[in-house]
Design brief:
The chain folds into 2 domains: 129 residues, Enolase-like, N-terminal domain (Enolase-like, domain 1); 225 residues, Enolase-like C-terminal domain (TIM Barrel, Alpha-Beta Barrel), CATH 3.20.20. The protein is globular and about 60 Å long. Helix 3 runs antiparallel to helix 4. The protein is of the alpha/beta class and 372 residues long.
């Protein structure tokens, strides 16, 4: 089964707000084959930059766009293609958005493989250990503690037993930070509270906040530091009274390796749209080996939600699933199937490949750029 076409599509909703939410646009990679099958993947990065990585023409042997690498290759050879993509982009890749583009390709290749064999991806990854997983509603903070409490109550009433609040205005001041967490706890009652700081502090400030937040029995404190501060994370994790989670920005196994080698985190958050299945399986095995916990990161569309479920259900100690509840049509309408928690639990798709089907009408209506 040979790759005949690599299509890249950029989608965007009509009204993009100035907030930290990646459910407002998307870049899809659609890989088509001579067998008539198509696999679909997605990257969570700047869509136009990902598209440029896909579209770039041949420059020389280690500076080559991904379409040039892939067309004509055997679609089932995902591991070999991963190595080939890394080598052929050596001069502009290795980290960040280029790896995110490769991850979209990798998701599409596994979707193809599942469709080829008539099996869900999770079966090809080793087998589903958790047919359903407890989901947490993932949402942004309100403007203050009172509004945050109202948001928490809304998602508790919707059936979620865990809610995560994140990003702005966390980091404004100690008083604002504590007020937000107090409001989160008030809103969700005795349910699980998770706090995503959004990379706003140095390590010592983060420790003071962790100590203050521990009064509210939070399940974890996510991304208190900048992503590259591995030493800071290790220092904080050894001292914090609450678990420390991070990893959503990391792209590929090489990016995660320092965090794992130094045992810098309690919870490693793997984003399938920045790692793909091939690297996510490697990371699953490494993190389980050191006795830490795994969770997905996902704040985009049902494509990444489905991919995350296929991967997380194969993890030994899967305990929570990030379920983005942003009120965005991209989150809810991109696929024919609805991939969302019901009564606080989310089920793993069982159809071939990713088990979801693009809503082509939605794609057409929100398409702003296409190549391939």
């Amino acid at each position: 089964m040979k790759i005949t076409q690599v299509v890249c599509q950029v989608l965007r909703i009509p009204h993009v707000e100035a907030k930290t939410a990646s459910s407002q646009d998307s870049v899809l990679v659609r890989i088509r084959t001579d067998a008539g099958l198509e696999g679909v993947g997605e990257a969570d990065a700047s869509p136009e930059v990902v598209k440029a990585v896909i579209d770039a023409p041949f420059s020389h042997n280690v500076a080559c766009g991904l379409r040039e690498v892939l067309v004509g290759q055997q679609a089932l050879e995902h591991e070999r293609l991963r190595r080939e993509m890394h080598r052929r982009t050596m001069y502009f890749g290795r980290t960040s958005v280029t790896v995110a583009a490769m991850s979209a390709v990798d998701l599409a290749l596994w979707d193809l493989k599942g469709k080829h064999f008539g099996e869900p991806v999770h079966r090809l990854l080793g087998g589903c250990l958790h047919p359903r997983i407890k989901a947490y509603a993932s949402i942004l903070f309100g403007k203050d503690g009172t509004e945050t409490a109202d948001i928490g109550r809304r998602w508790r009433e919707a059936g979620y037993e865990a809610v995560k609040f994140g990003w702005e205005p966390m980091g404004t001041s100690a008083a604002v930070d504590v007020d937000l967490v107090r409001g989160a706890r008030e809103g969700v009652g005795d349910a699980t509270v998770l706090i995503d700081a959004g990379c706003v502090w140095d390590a010592r400030t983060a420790l003071r906040r962790a100590e203050a937040f521990s009064e509210y029995a939070i399940e974890w404190l996510e991304e208190p530091l900048l992503p590259h501060d591995v030493e800071g994370y290790r220092w904080l994790r050894d001292r914090s009274p609450v678990p420390i989670a991070a990893g959503e920005e990391e792209c590929g196994r090489e990016s995660f390796r320092p965090l794992i080698d130094q045992r810098a985190l309690d919870v490693y958050q793997i984003d399938l749209s920045r790692n793909g299945f091939t690297d996510a399986v490697y990371l699953r095995d490494r993190v389980e080996e050191i006795g830490a916990r795994l969770c997905n990161h996902c704040y985009t569309s049902p494509i990444t939600v489905a991919a995350s479920l296929h991967w997380l259900c194969t993890c030994r100690d899967a305990f929570l699933f990030e379920d983005c509840v942003e009120d965005s049509p991209l989150r809810h309408e991109l696929t024919q199937e609805k991939v969302q928690a019901e009564a606080g639990w989310i089920r793993v798709p069982e159809g071939p490949g990713l088990g979801v089907t693009l809503n082509e009408d939605f794609v057409r209506d929100h398409l702003i750029a296409e190549s391939g």
